[in-house]
Amino acid sequence: MRIVLASLVAVAAVVVSQPALAAPAPWCAKLSLGEDYIAERCEYKTFEACLQVIAGQGPSFCVQNPAYNPNAAPEPRARRKAQPQTR
Fold first, then answer.
1. 27: part of which helix (H) or strand (E)?
2. Which helix (H) or strand (E) holds 49?
3. What is the full DSSP assignment across 58-81?
4. Chain Cα centroid distance, residue 26
5. Residue partners of 61: CB distance under 8 A and separation at least 6
6. In this structure, what is the dihedral angle of CA atoms 68, 73, 75, 78, given to the nearest 10 degrees?
7. Is 4 helix (H, G, I), strand (E, B) or coil?
8. pLDDT tens, position by position, for the chain (87 residues)?
């Protein structure tokens, strides 16, 4: 029981520490974190990469990301403002 609880805490910590606005990817990992709670992480470029993440995570699985659009233009990066030079 302690091993299961420790595993769930570790997975939850990884899920929470990931940035929420990651670039969309074609594969999602659905991670079971306990009774009626599933975390979804859609950041995997290949099915194999997703499978590596869910290995040993209990009843977790990989699905195609329904929101993924391979033809969507990437979001532009924010430009830095030039710092005034002082001499």
1. strand 27-32
2. helix 47-54
3. SS-EEEE-TT--TTSPPPPPPPPP
4. 11
5. 29, 30, 54
6. 160
7. helix
8. 555 444 544 544 444 445 445 568 999 999 988 878 889 999 999 999 999 999 988 889 999 999 998 887 666 667 777 777 776
Q: Ramachandran region of residue 34, left (φ > 0), alpha (ψ -120 to 50) or beta?
A: left
CB count within 10 Å of CB 15 equals 14
**Residue 72: exposure state from Cβ atoms within 10 A (0-12, 13-18, ≥19):** exposed
Bridge partners, 39 (sequence order): 31
SS3 at position 71? coil
The full set of domain ranges for the chain reads 23-69
* pLDDT attached to residue 34: 81
Longest dimension (CA), the chain: 65
Whole-prediction pTM: 0.55
Residue 32's beta-bridge partner residues?
Answer: 38
